[in-house]
Amino acid sequence: MNKTSNADSAEIEKFSQLAHRWWDKDSEFKPLHAINPLRLDWIRSHVPIEGKKIVDIGCGGGILSESLALTGAQVTGIDLSQKALKVAKLHALEAEVKGLEYLESSAESLAEQRPEFYDVVTCMEMLEHVPDPSLVVAACARLVKPGGWVFCSTINRNLQSFLMAIVGAEYVLNMLPRGTHEYAKFITPSELLSLAESAGLSAVNLIGMHFNPITQRYWLGSGTKVNYFLALQKSV
What we know:
By secondary structure, the protein is an alpha/beta fold. The chain is built from eight helices and eight strands. It has an eight-stranded mixed β-sheet. The longest helix has 15 residues.
């Protein structure tokens, strides 16, 4: 599939270098493994996904894609990192996961080929890694069927998010490799809501994701100062 110019080669290479560690739950991807049940339950609280067609944008090594497929959905995972996709395909093969395909594609390219094809679109922890998130949000809107759902998660842009997501997570707690995030690419909820509205998506639920470094516990609740989830729906 064709790629797009809306991709940061340095970002792709950054995650490609870590691709072999995607399924190591004690690696740099430990946070993704920890929050995955939270993400899955939150998605399922809005829409029953069994039998639904879902595209997981920026799927990486397939952590969320696999869990969606194991729940009974027909899943397409897309990413621009060949190494991450190879890891994802191998893990799915070893785990004998059914109803799952992986494609090297951008959201924009897939939207041209499969408009209004999916019941659900997930774009989790991805928007803060692209040069122009508006293009991805617009592609999400084109990919989803009328009445379908789009689920996004990203990081707010303010002093607190800088201190927690970059200084704390990358330099103090060493939860993530240094340089994983760039503050300038963080997106405020109001900015994301505006992009979604422009693309024809309506907000249904906005909620914050929180983390206690002492107890290592993640949970969803009020307050979107740092990480947040946004559920959107396309009008019929």
